[in-house]
């Protein structure tokens, strides 16, 4: 998937400020941060969106949310709260077609985001 921005980050051909990496998941700071803490958590496996998640992806999704939980604790978000966001499809605001979860925190978050 050479045209996928996040696959390039996984491969190391596109630089990122990594905060976590294991054999299945990578997390890095969002370059367009919307909060003091704004981390993107993605699987290394290319999955375009939530719409392509099958029953066989349960362990991977569990790993992703375990990493999110770990990062929330490490960045001091667990006590006061944080937001996890996944945009799905064009009208859902998805701009990179590689499933990813935004971990946002470090300030009071309003709805709608802004």
TrEMBL record:
Residue ranges of domain HIT in the record: 5-114
Protein name: Histidine triad nucleotide-binding protein
PANTHER family associated with the record: HISTIDINE TRIAD HIT PROTEIN
Span(s) of short sequence motif Histidine triad motif: 98-102
Database matches in SUPFAM superfamilies: HIT-like
Top-level taxon in the UniProt lineage: Bacteria
Pfam family of the protein (one): HIT
Higher taxonomy: Bacteria, Bacillati, Bacillota, Bacilli, Bacillales
């Amino acid at each position: 998937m050479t045209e996928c921005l996040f696959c390039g980050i996984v491969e190391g051909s596109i630089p990122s400020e990594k905060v976590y990496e294991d054999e299945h998941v990578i997390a890095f700071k969002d370059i367009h941060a919307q909060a003091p803490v704004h981390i993107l958590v993605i699987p290394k496996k290319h999955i375009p969106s939530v719409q392509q998640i099958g029953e066989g992806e349960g362990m991977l999704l569990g790993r992703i949310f375990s990493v999110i939980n770990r990062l929330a604790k490490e960045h001091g978000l667990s006590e006061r709260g944080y937001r996890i966001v996944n945009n799905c499809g064009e009208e859902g605001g998805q701009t990179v077609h590689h499933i990813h979860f935004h971990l946002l925190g470090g300030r009071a978050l309003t709805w709608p985001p802004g």
